[in-house]
Amino acid sequence: MRTLVQVGALGLCWSLWLCASGAAAQAWPSLKYPEAARVQTVAEDVVLNGVPAQVTRFDVRGTEADVIEFFRKQFGERRVENKVAGSFVMATQQANFFYTIQLKTTQPGQVQGTVMTNRVQGGGGRSAIALDSEKLLPAASAVLSQLQSNDAGKQSMLLMAANKASAKANRDHLVNALQERGFRLVKDDERAVEGRAAYALTLSSVDEEAMVTVTDAGAYRAVLINRTRDAK
Fold this sequence. Notes:
The structure is a single chain. By secondary structure, the protein is of the alpha+beta class. It has two domains: 2-119, 2-Layer Sandwich (TATA-Binding Protein), CATH 3.30.310; 128-230, Mog1/PsbP, alpha/beta/alpha sandwich (Protein Transport Mog1p, Chain A). The protein has four helices and twelve strands; from the N terminus they run H-E-E-H-E-E-E-E-H-E-E-H-E-E-E-E. The chain has helices spanning 2-14, 64-75, 128-136, 167-180, and strands at 38-48, 51-61, 80-84, 87-94, 97-107, 110-119, 142-151, 154-163, 184-193, 196-204, 208-216, 221-230. Strand 9 and strand 10 (196-204) form a beta hairpin. The longest helix has 14 residues, at 167-180. The protein is elongated.
């Protein structure tokens, strides 16, 4: 769940610059990292809003200016740079891939970078579980983001949406819709967050678990659905 949220946050930055559609899958490219960088894969195989993606993270000694200059030389003039939520972000397209790099200084002389690579032309598409999850939502809901992941033998789908129905109406609608799909309600936690209604639900079926949160965000209600099952 934590990985999905991290990827979703970076994906919102990426979507400011790119709208992509898919074709046949191909191998992920090898990006060059600063010398002596410690690189780890955060998400090997995810689909963000229908677009295949890969996410890596690296830690390296030095300054943000050093790392920025390294990627400027690698990417050349065709790039976009910006500040997003206080972090430096660089984005560029190279051949059939789009890169988004987010940097932050974790301590003096230490920089952490998160790299999202998206296929500008590459398969994926939304799975049956992603399409079905949209159908769970009350009428007039707006889907803000949708992320699919295949990790450690688990297939996960994270959907973020908003609508103007009450928190209780959202809770009832989602429970009924999931129960119609064979889920049973395991946990039903109602609480107040800063005086506003919020629900945290856990439902389970024979081969799948769904975690649902509904939060009153003022003019809108925020809905988060996370469904997980064994990868087939």
